[in-house]
Amino acid sequence: MNKVDKTRKILLLTSTEQTSNRLTKILGDDLEQPIIKQMQGLRIYNFKKVYKREKRQMMCTTICGPLKIPGFANNYNKNNRRWDRYFKKYIEKRVSQENYSLSQYLIANIHNISFIIFCFHYCPLNEAICQQFVNFVDTLQNKQQNLKYLRMKYHDLNAKHIMENFNKLENFQINQIHYKIHNLKSEFNLRVSKAFTDWQTRFLQKYFRDLRQCKKIFFSPTLLPILKQIVTSYAKQLNFIQEPYYTLNFEQNTLDGPIKFKWKRKRLRDRYVMAILMEKCTIKEAENFLFKAKMTKQTTKDVILERPLPLNLPTLLIKATKYLKLSAKRVLTIAEHLYQEGYISYPRTRTNCFPKDFDFLNLIALQVSNPTYGLYANDLLQENSKIIPRNGTIVDHFLHPIYPTQEGSHLKKDNRLVFDFIAKYFLAACSNDALMSKTTITMMVKEEEFTFSSKKIIAKNFFEIHPYKKWKDIPLPNFMLNVEIVCYKFTLDTIPPKKPTLISEAKLIKVLENQGIGIDCKIVDHLSDLERNNYTTLKNNKYLEPTELGRALIEGYDRIDQQLSSPNHYLEFESALFILANEIIHNNRVINNNGVLPEILNNNLQKYSDFLKKVTQRKRGLLYSFQKNKFTIEKNPNRKQCKDLYRPIFSCTRCGIKKKMSIKLTKDNRLMFGCAGWKDCHTAIYCHDCITKIDVMNEKCSICKTKGLDVVLCNFFFEPGYLPVFLQPSPYKGCPCCDGNLNEFLKRDILKKEEESEESDESDESEESEESDEINDNNALIPQKNSQKQSQSRSQRLTRNRRSGQGSHIFHPFSHSVIDNRLNENSNQTIINLNNNKQNLTSSNHDEQRKRRGQVTLNTNLQKRKYNNSKK
């Protein structure tokens, strides 16, 4: 091998800038300050350090996550509506924007580097970061360069610990199976998230204007089960029914005060049954009702209260959010800050087992100088020469549980609270178990059994330092065995039901830990993703409340398929990878089987691909759930996609060749063909709601050409399920003037409605004339001026119902026939007034219906009066 050039530099890579700064202060020379170079967001610390008895030039910098991130090609991301292709498309890896300046620096200065030292804690993500970096550097260096890769193993940023481990550098050896599993999980999450996110973003923003402010409506196979837990707790609180419980309350006076016995049956809902039980327990003596009790049993036993397990991240988040009243995100931020300053060990760990050769005594000795719990640490050192904490079930040989590495009495505010919690928890885990004596008394009131427990702590041990789990002595009352006593208080009490609260962060983390979600110590990151995507909000710095968007999304997917939002499918995927990794570690035969990982990936991608197909087919469930959660749906959203608006198609039948009919939009986004001279001509063809889009073609209708008409053919797009068999496929190519199929399809119902409205108008006119005659004859009820106003408004309503102007015509949708609206001479003045007012069509229809209902009721009353008068 070629000798290493000693003039070249040594590069140290860390995960955060704070770690780089801390390592530079520890490893650098105290006499010389480090030189800091900045280039396009990249900060490089240059310092000198003695390595292998020689002073070498060193550099320390940060790599922000994976050097290359997976993604799809640019031409694939744009305007792609085949969502199933996301599950099969080739994925490219490109240098991330955060690490672009680092990659450019390596390209320019790789020849000046002899060693690369990875200062990372072990986890699958860090393994992938290191392997990607090695692959990238190998493509840059020459074969003769002889670049070496080393790793420094450390658990905290204490100066003594760092100096010891820097002199014990090891050759970097990647764990291939963990690297492949991490790449497989990242590919799975990318494909599923991209497919569902793009589909639901385009679909929901198309119908709901409120959601167009969001850049994207994010979907993730891990976030959806977490969101469902939050929505379920909210639904329980919303749908809570107050049903009271009933119980028997038995109290007795003693020398130490009144004591309360617990009923063995606890509680019942049926008050009638409780009244029967209460009656059975009563004794009548001299017209008095008494209750007598007799002690039948007394047992005493010693109970061992186990000390807590070593602290890991889930336990820290659960306990600290509960006792310290801080949010989970705040607790993790403070813990990472304390780690960067060298006060605690690496916090992102799930292991709850210390190794056998761990040095507990030196860590406990560091806390002796603390003013609050220093005396307890000193007593612990003197009493126990050998400390052996309890061991949990989660074992990781690369990471240790969380423990304090310095004394932190000078810390302030929240930092002091979190550090004291970690230090006290560590001292409690190193203490002995507590011992308690428990005595249980059983009392019988007729056939009902009641119990009372007396507790006395014999040895406190870890309770002295662990104030978060409180316990107090309960004195033992003096009762004689098999001797009856009169009950001091025996009542039937009503227990009001407790309204369920929103799920707290501590409870949610505990539920997710039991389910197996967030086993990569990213539970807090998942919760912050939910809050960033406007799915949840944090209430009172403790409870998680879903937003309207989060509730609508979960309810919609549950309407389609409840398995989609359940964690079972993703847990099956992670458990299969976890089992495979353990088999490969303990059995070398499985390593050569390269077809297992792609098979697991393809099977799980196929499941989510089937889910997406089902969602696209039953998407009306999402629309219903969003409407239910107060999202206003936009009518006919597809009309705005019509690119050929205001493009002339054929000549107006009223204006002649001078004006052309073109595609327009009504106020409620309905498609129509309107005349270009709309101020003078109100000729229109209104399209049915099922037509979503109209594209004008360059071809002309041959049939209309023989009649002397210049009409352009169009492509008509229909909503799914509305297109009849004889018009398929969609888009349907046809003429808006002479196509009989289109006329027959959209003409029948509208004609029936027109005929019914005309008949009702005629009947209303006849009834109105009779009404006016009746009023004029009797000289009662309504003056003559009002009757003239009613007749005038009636003519206005007739004109509005037929959508006509002065001398205008109405066209049925896609019908070339014209219905002439010739009104009486008396109504010409009202038509002119209507055209001048230009009132809205929809509001006039509503006004017409309301007036018509009032006139019908008025006519019926007049007919009854006329009939009664004729009888008399």
Topology:
Blueprint: E1 9-14, H1 17-27, E2 35-39, E3 42-51, E4 54-62, E5 68-71, H2 74-77, E6 92-95, H3 100-109, E7 113-118, H4 124-140, E8 148-151, H5 159-166, E9 170-171, H6 176-207, H7 223-238, E10 245-252, E11 259-263, H8 271-281, E12 283-285, E13 288-290, E14 292-305, H9 313-323, H10 328-340, H11 360-365, H12 374-383, H13 413-429, E15 434-445, E16 448-459, E17 484-486, E18 489-495, H14 505-515, H15 523-532, E19 536-539, E20 543-546, H16 548-560, H17 568-586, H18 596-617, H19 620-628, E21 648-652, E22 656-665, E23 671-675, E24 684-686, E25 691-700, H20 702-706, E26 712-718, E27 732-734, H21 740-778, H22 784-801, E28 809-811, E29 818-820, H23 828-837, H24 841-871
Parallel strand pairs: 1-4, 1-7, 7-8
Antiparallel strand pairs: 2-3, 3-4, 5-6, 8-9, 10-11, 10-18, 11-16, 12-13, 14-15, 14-17, 15-16, 19-20, 21-22, 22-23, 23-24, 25-26, 26-27, 28-29
Helix pairs in contact: 4-6, 6-17, 6-18, 9-14, 10-13, 16-19, 17-18, 21-22, 21-24
